[in-house]
């Protein structure tokens, strides 16, 4: 995977036609581009993956695989990059999509939740109050879970409005289906908190997880 990534990054343009003969889980991770703009940006840019038709399809399929057979009523995606994977996932499932927004964009009644994002900045997210009814089963999708602050805030918003989750079987919480999906869930304190309490899916093979945890 590392060799594939290095070779493709030498080209100034993306190859949107190439598909490997053996499409193992996570092959599309090599399509992502590293940060070249410095510490004020995320260490990796997954948006390059979304430009590849087969890569995007396989990414969504891998995210949904653990939830096969689970009842899901709606997909919710987190502003902003979670909108891409969330909407694609909702389309595959033929379910509705709920946008969880950064504060100040919705012109309807909302409920808000403050949080600290991966860069340490204090922010507020909000969601409309008329979309989630008690007992609705929500699959929550974001591009990445690094420190876990953003996803945890989204979880709190959904639960405050009455959504339910497919919790980890060893957690003493309601065992009702749904969960959390992201390209990568890092082994951070926040990432572990989410994994321990909710059914999760991600796209990083186990042997590559340490590289992603250390941003290599």
TrEMBL record:
Keyword terms, alphabetized: Cytoplasm, Glycosyltransferase, Purine salvage, Transferase
EC identifiers of the protein: 2.4.2.7
Signal peptide region: none
BP terms from Gene Ontology: purine ribonucleoside salvage
GO molecular function, one term: adenine phosphoribosyltransferase activity
Keyword rRNA processing included in the entry's annotation: no
Pfam families found in the cross-reference section: Pribosyltran (PF00156)
Phosphoribosyltransferase domain boundaries: 70-162
Enzyme class name: transferase
Similarity comment text for this entry: Belongs to the purine/pyrimidine phosphoribosyltransferase family.
PANTHER family (UniProt xref): ADENINE PHOSPHORIBOSYLTRANSFERASE, PHOSPHORIBOSYLTRANSFERASE DOMAIN-CONTAINING PROTEIN
UniProt name for this protein: adenine phosphoribosyltransferase
Protein species of origin: Tyrannus savana (Fork-tailed flycatcher)
Organism ancestry: Eukaryota, Metazoa, Chordata, Craniata, Vertebrata
